[in-house]
Amino acid sequence: MKSVRMYTTPICPYCVRAKSLLKKKGVDVEEIDVFMDMQAREEMESQSGGARSVPQIFIGDTYVGGCDELYALEKEGKLDPLLA
Questions:
Q1: Distance between CA atoms of 27 and 42, rounded to whole angstroms?
Q2: Less packed terminus of the chain by CB within 10 Å, N or C?
Q3: Residue 33 has what pLDDT?
Q4: Mean model confidence pLDDT for the chain
């Protein structure tokens, strides 16, 4: 299974929702809290093409986007192959 990296904040309901879906799939998520860490936030923005909202999700080397994009992949049946 590919590694999953998610940039989050502790007060983000979309982060909780995204982590919940990945947890149901048995995925370990590397969570990077950008709430008070400006360097981590800059890294997130750089790697996501300038996105400033959380979560920002990466599966392996693939940039997924946010929670809505993650759930869209699941609905389309594309999330499991991406995780494999």
A1: 25
A2: C
A3: 97
A4: 97
CATH number at residue 70: 3.40.30.10
Encoded tokens for 17 = 């929702």
pLDDT for the residue numbered 62: 97
Chain centre distance of CA 18 = 7
Residue range of the domain that includes 40 = 4-83
Split into its structural domains, the chain has a count of: 1
pLDDT in tens, 24-80: 999 999 999 999 999 999 999 999 999 999 999 999 999 999 999 999 999 999 999
Comparing CA positions, the residue from 21, 46, 16, 42 lying closest to residue 31 is 16
| 1 pLDDT higher than 90 | no
CB 60 within 8 Å of CB 8:
no
